[in-house]
Structure formats: C-alpha cells, structure tokens
Design goal:
Layout (H helix, E strand, L loop, with lengths): L2 E6 L2 E6 L7 E3 L8 H13 L19 H18 L7 H4 L1 H13 L13 E3 L7 E13 L5 E11 L3 E3 L1 H12 L2 E2 L1 H16 L4 E9 H4 L10 E6 L6 H10 L3
Parallel strand pairs: 5-8
Antiparallel strand pairs: 1-2, 2-3, 4-7, 5-6, 6-9, 9-10
Helix pairs in contact: 2-4, 5-6
The structure holds zinc ion.
Zinc ion binds next to loops.
C-alpha cells in the first residue's frame, strides 16, 4: 500500500493507494479537514516550488531502518512503478533498474538526509590573521527537486570572513554537497549551507549564492531551457552593500 504523507502546518494527510476515497486526514485535534482544499494547496506549493521550512521535513522514525532495508523497500516499489508504466522487467536492460535506483537514492543522491553522513568538520585557528573575505566559487552542485524528483544542477559560491577560525577549503565543497544530496528546494538549500557555515566557523559573516537549472522547469511544465534560478543568503558583514558588492564581483555576478 502506498502511503503519501504531507505536512502542512500541523496537519498530516495520508493518501492511500492514490485514491481520494481512501484518503485519511488527521489533524492535531483529529477533526477531519477539507481534503480537496488541502490537496489543492499541496499541489500548488509543489508546482510553485514553495518550501515550508528551513529544515528538511523529516519524520521522527527516519533512521529506524538501516540502508539495506530502505533499499529493499524502494527497489520493490520502484519495480511496481515501472511495471505500472507497462515496462517489461524481464528485459535484460530493465531488470536491474529498480535495484540501481534504490541504491542511487539511498547511497548517493539522498545520502545527505542522514546526519550520520555529515562531513566531519575540523576548524583551525586563523594563524595568518587573514581578515579579508575568503571566496570559494564555482562549487559544482547536484541536487534533486523535492517537488518533482528531477535534478537541480548548478554552481554554489560561498564566502566568509574569519572570526578567528578557518576550515579547509575542500570542507566548504563537502558542506555544499552534503545538503545538496537531499530532495531539496533551492532556497532551503541556500539557507542550510549558510547556517552550517555560521555554526562551524563561529561567525555571522557568511554569504551563499546558488545559480542553478531545474530539470523540472526545462524538461517538463513550462519547458524553459534557458532559465536559471539564483538564490542568495547574506548574513553579518555581507549585509553591507560594499562587502556584498565585493563578493558579487569575485563571483562575476
Ligand atoms: Zn521541481
């Protein structure tokens, strides 16, 4: 049985077998709500790529199951999706696809959902007393749109001004990659990277810009091949127009 769950404020909706008649709606006080209106709102939010919070919406029991168990379940369900589409799973070319997809979801593209996979961050004292901004630009970014499960591909540009702590440059790339490897919304991804840098570097002075293309915009829906989405998060000294301008000059924007 397929179970979809959505969280809209404090309401949980479960849709069973994709059939509206089987829909169960639970609210915080267990009173049924207007189901159609809620689904319409959820549909709109997904299509307009609206996120509900800066944290990735996760369930309490997200990691009760290990990776192998998750892969087995995803494999089974993905085989059903393919089967439903009418594909012949006995074909040599298709046979291994459900397993490949399951492995790719858990071990690669959604690997960043699990806090256990968060890169270890060691910070060092800023011995050189370098007090200017440090910019790490053109960091390759591969993520997945949480509304359509299609790729988001682009670049991240990150800067910080040291408050006395520094991190290895490759760690910045690892932070970007960790948060990108989740079903994402670009705005949330931008904020999550900025918040992590703030925490690790113990400074408010961070900036993150993401410039990315969404396959769900280019290959379906509006089918706009040329458009890109730019999101930015500035904090501390980067809110100052001159500092922001210096950063934008470095990244060529
Ligand atoms: Zn999308």
């Amino acid at each position: 049985m397929l179970v979809y769950r959505l969280h809209l404020s404090n309401i949980t909706i479960m849709k069973l077998n994709g059939n509206n008649h089987d829909t169960i709606v639970l609210t915080n006080n267990n009173k049924p709500r207007d189901i159609e209106a809620l689904w319409a709102q959820a549909d709109f939010m997904g299509d307009e790529h609206i996120a509900t919070s800066a944290d990735t919406p996760m369930r309490q029991d997200a990691f009760d199951m290990d990776d192998a168990a998750k892969m087995a379940i995803i494999e089974k369900h993905f085989a059903q999706i393919m089967q439903t589409l009418g594909l012949d799973l006995t074909d040599d070319s298709l046979m291994g696809t459900p397993h490949r997809v399951a492995k790719m979801y858990v071990k690669e593209i959604f690997h960043g959902l699990n806090p256990a996979n968060k890169p270890k961050m060691s910070v060092f004292d800023n011995k050189f007393k370098y007090g200017q901004m440090l910019v790490e630009k053109n960091i390759g970014l591969n993520s997945t749109c949480e509304h359509h499960f299609l790729p988001i591909v682009g670049k991240a540009h990150v800067a910080y001004i040291s408050s006395g702590k520094v991190i290895g440059l490759s760690k910045i790339n690892r932070i970007v990659d960790y948060f990108a490897r989740r079903p994402q919304v670009q705005e949330r991804l931008t904020v999550q990277i900025a918040n992590e840098l703030r925490k690790v570097l113990q400074t408010e002075d961070v900036a993150v810009v993401i410039d990315a293309r969404h396959m769900c915009v280019s290959s379906r829906g509006i089918q706009d091949e040329g458009s890109a989405t730019v999101t930015a998060e500035y904090a501390g000294k980067f809110l100052d127009a001159k500092v922001k301008e210096e950063f934008l000059t470095y990244i060529g924007m």
